[in-house]
Amino acid sequence: QAALIEPENPSPAIACTDSLRALCRPEEAIACLQALVVQQPACTAALLLLAEIHRDDQSIAEAEQCLRRALDADEELVSAALRLGDLLAATGREEEAIACYQRVISLHPKHYAALVQLGMLYDRVCRPAEAEHCFRQALLECCDSSQISVSKGAKSPSACFPSASSSETESDDKSSHSINVTRELVNSLGMTLADQGRLDEALDCYDRALEISGDEAYPMAHTNRALALIQLGRFAEGWREYEWRWRCPGA
Predict the structure, then answer these.
(1) Gap between the terminal Cα atoms of the chain
(2) Cα(129)–Cα(198) distance, rounded to whole angstroms?
(3) What's the pLDDT at 181?
(4) Share of the chain above pLDDT 70, in %
(5) How far apart are CA 131 and CA 105, in angstroms?
(6) Against a cut of 0.90, is the pTM above it?
(7) Which of 104, 105, 46 is CA-nearest to residue 70?
């Protein structure tokens, strides 16, 4: 009824869609959004929600089309670029996904989520130096700047490590940031350094990730540490650490 009264206002149709989804009536939700998009082709809120429903239904091509239409309507729509990057990465189209995250960073150079996702993709396509740069920048964004000091071009990973007691920043990107996320990021940085043969620096990362974890076990960092130790010829210590591999997910 509200949509009939204010046909130019997309909010009622979107609210109706949310209700239909909650009632497990996805076909009607899609029809509601499609009708809205016919009336308002540049309604990015409708296109984003339609893309989400299609993706949940594994209709990947339709979801991609909606996200691209949203970006056509608003070239600076960060949420659409991020979601498109996630979708492309999940379907093995790494180079296209990289372009999406780069698009976000070109608009917002300190965007934490885009930096992390881009770093992970660079790591996946064997571009460790670029992955390292992204992870370092992301670490700067997820840490309290008063507790870290990073000089331009710094090579020492300790230069951009957060302390275990670092307070959260107030950015929307990192408001839900946790110690677990921080340690994953530091561990990922260590892996990119190891891929470049910088094993001592990689060890520093793994040690720091374990320090951040505190009393909580972190088998992946122990396992990565073991591999670096073995490559450095520190076999006795390395083989002991390597027993942690059995506690890693999927071992």
Answers:
(1) 55
(2) 11
(3) 86
(4) 86
(5) 14
(6) no
(7) 46
pLDDT of residue 176: 35
Q: How confident is the model at residue 141 (pLDDT cuts 50, 70, 90)?
A: confident
Whole-angstrom distance, CA of residue 188 vs CA of residue 168: 20
Q: What pLDDT score was predicted for residue 143?
A: 66
**pLDDT band at 4, cuts 50/70/90?**
confident
- Tell me the two tokens of residue 227: 């591999």
Record the tokens describing residue 94, joined without a space. Answer: 């790494």
pLDDT in tens, 192-217: 999 999 999 999 999 999 999 999 99
- Write out the DSSP string of the chain: -HHHH-TT--HHHHHHHHHHHHTT-HHHHHHHHHHHHHH-TT-HHHHHHHHHHHHHTT-HHHHHHHHHHHHHH-TT-HHHHHHHHHHHHHTT-HHHHHHHHHHHHHH-TT-HHHHHHHHHHHHHTT-HHHHHHHHHHHHHHHS-GGG----TT---GGGGPPPTTPPPP--GGGTT--HHHHHHHHHHHHHHHHHTT-HHHHHHHHHHHHHHHTTS--HHHHHHHHHHHHHTT-HHHHHHHHGGGGGSTT-
Q: Distance between CA 242 and CA 219 in Å, rounded? A: 9
